[in-house]
Amino acid sequence: MNKVILMGRLTRDPDIRYSNSQTGEQMAIARYTVAVDRRFARRNAGDNQQNADFISCVAFGRQGEFAEKYLKQGTKIALTGRIQTGSYTNKDGQRVYTTEVVVEEQEFAESKGAGGQSQGGYEPQSAPAPEDASAEGFMNIPEGIENDLPFK
Fold it and tell me: What pLDDT was estimated at residue 142?
């Protein structure tokens, strides 16, 4: 089985290109790199040790269109896909081997407001104060909204 699950931040805006698909329609191809933090740092490696891996990703079709429209540098995403390897000969005649993740699904891994900067997105309301709760720990329902509740 070839399945990859990653969560990290885009290191730069996606590079978007369009190619003709087999049906003759334009297909979006998005390439980007995700910085994925390592779970454990190496001991005695010094302060200059890299604590993240930089994973090349490519998204085709609708996933590529999603990347073009919504993803930008610094966006934290979770994605699933598969590892694909390949090779090509560069202009100097040397064989170059590649490894990338072909994205099957991708989604945001944090809200717009996370990270300290709000950009007009959803912001949660503050939690009710403890003194608003009954002795059993439940909050009393405000008067006038009993009929608007989805449960009774």
Answer: 64
